[in-house]
Amino acid sequence: MKNYLALLATLAGCSLAVGCGDSNEVTGPGGDAGTGGEDQGAGGTAGDDGTGGVGGADDEFVPDAYGEWIKFEPPGAICSDGSQYAYYVNFSETSDNVMFYLMGGGACWDYESCMGGSFRGAANPEGLPDDYANKHMQVAGLDIPVDVVYPLMHADPAVSPMADWNKVFIPYCTGDVYAGNTTVTYENPEDGELVEFHHVGHANMLKVVEEVGTMFNEIPELFVGGCSAGGTGSLVNYDFIRGGLNVERGYLLDDSGPMFPSSLSTSRSLPLHNKVRASWQVDDLIEGAPQSELIFEDFGNLSTVLAEEYPEDRIALTQFRLDYNYSLYSYERFWERDGSDVFLSDDDTTIGLDQEDALDRAAVYGLWDDDNALVTDQYDAVDNLGYYIPFWRTTNDSHCVTIPGLEEFTEEEAVMLFITDFPRLAWAGSELGDMSMRDYVDHLLDPDAPLESYFDTEPNGPLAVCMPDPLFDEELCIDAHDNYTPGPQT
Prior knowledge:
This protein has 16 helices and 17 strands. It is of the alpha/beta class.
């Protein structure tokens, strides 16, 4: 992910007609993104008494501006370190539709993953940078807005079918895929330092929805989505967002944050589900969800419950078959390999499957393939559930389909496309047959067409030989893994 973010920062800097500077300093999520931006304090337009606030139930909300990101800070909403939480809204003058997009950024449940800066650890453990939507990343003092990192929020209709919608950007700083409602004290194993960590992503979301409900009295169409942790967060919070607003029709796109069925004999994600439920007090969320007894039985039942509760809504999952990020998060601490045998580990505090080992990679792909078979069967059984699952792309180790396909090109080609043809760059490598991810989102947003599903059965990419039989070849897998270098091609 670091290579991907660095390239994105480079592209944004080079697109501003000032050239690519000598500085290689890159600040991504969690870094110092500077100050400034439109800040409305506790949120919304100032009241008649001159104080900040969203306004009472009888007040008509009028934003300070349209077409730019405005920050809101719900009272009582906090990040993991106890600092103030903030979200952003970009208001439209031409549409009453609203999209929520939840930022990705790992997850954690111990000191090392929450505070140690591990690859899949928690984003923003020290709170959110200011003006985070406009300065989501920086390079050499140049700002990269969030709608470049996540193109579905882009204002160009050639990039996003929701270009003119009202957009709500939900930053991530609680390490709990927006599902938590607890505070935990973690101990640094090196010096015994105790750190209080607030896993309150779900509690924050409820406060955000309450405020957003005062901004939009009626919402004809609502889209909720996110990538990775944001994908999971969009799924687990969909009922609370959808039910907390006055919405006519809703759409959900979970990008690379699947909630797999976990109670079947070939389920591989039950250890993860049990771990996070205990670590983040997720049962509070489940108790507030519809048909909670079914979700308590199997967290993976959430998708079918949502489909039943909102039969006119359209709910979809997208991810790559060779995802090597969320798959590692799902299995690396909970499974081990001995030769060709893959089995549950007795110790989930250490890494059991090493991402640098070729045959452990193959084991991860096998577990992911088992879970993918279960979730596609689950979605196939319900009319308003669909999926779009391509096989592989270089970009970001096949993780997240709704981010730009920067690494499908050489750096020089990517820079040129960023300047001249961002729509192509935004969805490069997301193709499945004649469709791209953009095409599938168009389809998802079309309530007049039956919701379809697409699953790539054509192996592609150098690592397909690490997939389960009949594709698996041990010698070729080791060679492909040892010679595979994620990142910009040269």
